[in-house]
Design goal:
This protein has 2 domains: 74-387, Alpha/Beta hydrolase fold, catalytic domain (Rossmann fold), CATH 3.40.50; 400-524, Lipoxygenase-1 (Sandwich). Helices cover 23% and strands 27% of the residues. It contains 11 helices and 25 strands. It has helices spanning 2-21, 30-36, 74-77, 103-107, 130-142, 153-156, 161-184, 199-212, 295-301, 310-327, 342-347, and strands spanning 43-46, 49-52, 56-59, 80-84, 94-96, 116-120, 146-151, 192-197, 220-224, 250-255, 275-279, 334-337, 372-375, 383-387, 398-406, 413-422, 429-436, 444-452, 463-472, 474-476, 481-483, 488-497, 502-505, 510-512, 518-524. The longest helix has 24 residues, at 161-184. The protein is elongated and about 80 Å long. 40% of the residues are buried.
Length: 526
């Protein structure tokens, strides 16, 4: 752990040196002259800001700011908007442009009586990626609506993440101008729903800032793992330049790759919406093997792949799944719940909810229960909420709580407990951290909240098998190797679902110390 923190601090120092090292030590007045020279015909520069025709002015970062950049010229960005609806052939969307006196809007088949969904890609994204096209197709099958996919790929391309982050402000304003034109022509502002992934979430926030300057507040913004690097602290990015709860009537945010460590994680750690969903705790997602700590590392090796950003990309995947579930009339929902103890309590499995009836449509109605919510297209909830997913598609499943009660006889140990369930041809497995390092051991209960295949755990199931495997850790110190016991002693094991069904172990204590583990029988607890 100490080595990892040291490496992250070194990375941050390298970023600072790298960003500052390329600046010329100029003579007094030199930078002022540079700002007035070489100006294109569509822009003018003053000290502290840069101005462009049509989109207006933007503040420049401090000349010696190591982590901030200026937004690029709109002519370089070449932002476009692709319009889809049921009147438009899917393979030939209408293209909407800015600064053409609304000609492309007037010539388009935009349907002003129907709501608007806007999809906004993130860093190094492209407008016609498979997720965006699949989401568009799903929306058009679900509703009579307009869908716009925003194309700001020139501004989002790598490897200079800081420049892409700066561009969110200018392309966000471009989106705001387009939306204002549509509203002026008859679109209802509360019928606008912006869905932004990663940096795209902050593009949505900047679009809202422009509209709020016109006294317009749109209906909804969904932030899918809103980008964290350079957006965490207000001294790096002001509140008006990123997504927050004041940007729409309803702002819902999903967190899948966040971290309290500054240089770790692609997503924001802080809550930003009326409701913030933290999937599986909001950090590492099951089924992902992210190797790099965050986007600041990819800044140097210039790579961003499905491996390095698996947990981050899961955000859009989960949202898309909620659209497909509606299309398929699936009743599986990402039910979320309040956890008064926050992330530590969720990770310890201490805030698992109880529902009365799995078929009760009011079970997660906020009018009746404010401790429950739902992530997705039909998002509802309030404050910070948590939910668990499976490790592969479909990610929606039956959420369960697993507990393992250890005997006071268990010696000092530190390791990982693998729990493998076996019932009705389903064999999900889970990992639970085991930390028992006090000199005097005591009764301790290890909990885990996870998800199995939807409805695979039949409430009429009389019994199931569970195989427990334990792997202990050893640590090398300067003088010796610190050894913990390679065994644990289990008193009780239980599995619970959200509807009060429980299966538990009835028997004597079991020592877990063999590589193959121990198989125990759980029976339905009446």
């Amino acid at each position: 752990m100490f080595k990892q923190r040291l490496i992250k601090l070194i990375i941050l120092l390298i970023i600072f040196i790298n960003c500052c090292g390329h600046r010329v030590r100029d003579r007094p007045g030199m930078r002022f002259r540079q700002r007035l020279s070489g100006i294109g015909r569509n822009r003018t520069r003053n000290i502290g800001k840069v101005c462009y025709d049509f989109v207006g002015c933007f503040e420049l970062p401090h000349p010696r700011s190591p982590l901030q950049r200026s937004p690029q010229d709109p002519n370089v960005l070449n932002t476009k908007f692709y319009l889809f609806n049921k009147k438009i052939q899917f393979s030939q969307p209408n293209i909407l442009y800015l600064n053409d006196n609304q000609k492309s809007i007037y010539d388009s088949k935009f349907d002003y009586k129907n709501p608007l969904k806007v999809l906004i890609h993130g860093y190094m994204g492209i407008w016609n990626n498979l997720n965006s096209l699949n989401a568009t197709d799903a929306y058009l099958k679900l509703y009579d609506c307009n869908v716009i996919i925003m194309d700001w790929s020139n501004g989002a391309k790598g490897p200079q993440y800081a420049t892409a982050a700066a561009n969110t402000e200018i392309v966000g304003r471009q989106l705001g101008i387009l939306l204002n034109d549509l509203i002026t022509n008859g679109l209802t502002h509360k019928a606008i729903h912006l869905i932004g992934f990663s940096l795209g979430a902050h593009v949505a926030g900047c679009a809202s800032e422009y509209l709020k300057s016109k006294n317009i507040l749109i209906g909804r913004i969904t932030g899918l793992d809103a980008a964290g690097p350079l957006f965490r602290l207000n001294n790096l990015r002001e509140k008006s330049k990123k997504l927050d709860r004041d940007d729409a009537v309803f702002v819902d945010a999903l967190h899948t790759d966040s971290s309290p460590v500054f240089v770790d994680g692609f997503g924001l750690w802080e809550p930003i919406g009326h409701v913030d969903f933290f999937a599986n705790g909001g950090q590492d997602q099951p089924g992902c093997t992210d190797r790099h700590p965050s986007i600041v590392v990819t800044h140097f090796d210039k790579t961003l792949t499905s491996d390095t950003a698996c947990s981050h990309a899961r955000a859009f995947t989960l949202f898309l799944e909620t659209l497909n579930s509606k299309l398929q009339h699936s009743d599986c929902k990402f039910i979320s719940y309040d956890c008064p103890g926050g992330l530590p309590s969720f990770e310890k499995g201490q805030c698992f909810p109880r529902l009365q009836n799995p078929n009760d449509p009011l079970a997660i109605d906020p009018i009746y229960r404010d401790d429950l919510g739902e992530f997705g297209e039909n998002a509802k909830g309030n404050g910070v909420m948590y939910f668990a997913t499976r490790d592969s598609y479909p990610f929606c499943g039956s959420q369960i709580q697993i507990y393992v009660k250890l005997s006071p006889k268990t010696p000092q140990t530190l390791g990982k407990l693998i729990v493998e369930l076996n019932y009705d041809n389903d064999r999900p497995n889970f990992e639970i951290n085991c930390e028992l390092t006090d000199l005097v051991t005591r009764n301790i209960v290890l909990n885990k909240i996870s998800a199995t295949k939807y409805k695979s755990l039949n409430p009429d199931l009389k019994k199931m098998q569970v195989n427990l495997k334990y792997f202990h850790f050893e640590f090398e110190t300067i003088n010796e190797t610190l050894k913990y016991s390679n065994e644990i002693i289990v008193q009780d094991v239980g599995v619970l679902d959200m509807f009060g069904n429980k299966w538990r172990y009835f028997g004597n204590e079991v020592k877990i110390d063999k590589p193959e583990g121990e198989v125990m029988l759980l029976k339905k607890d009446k």
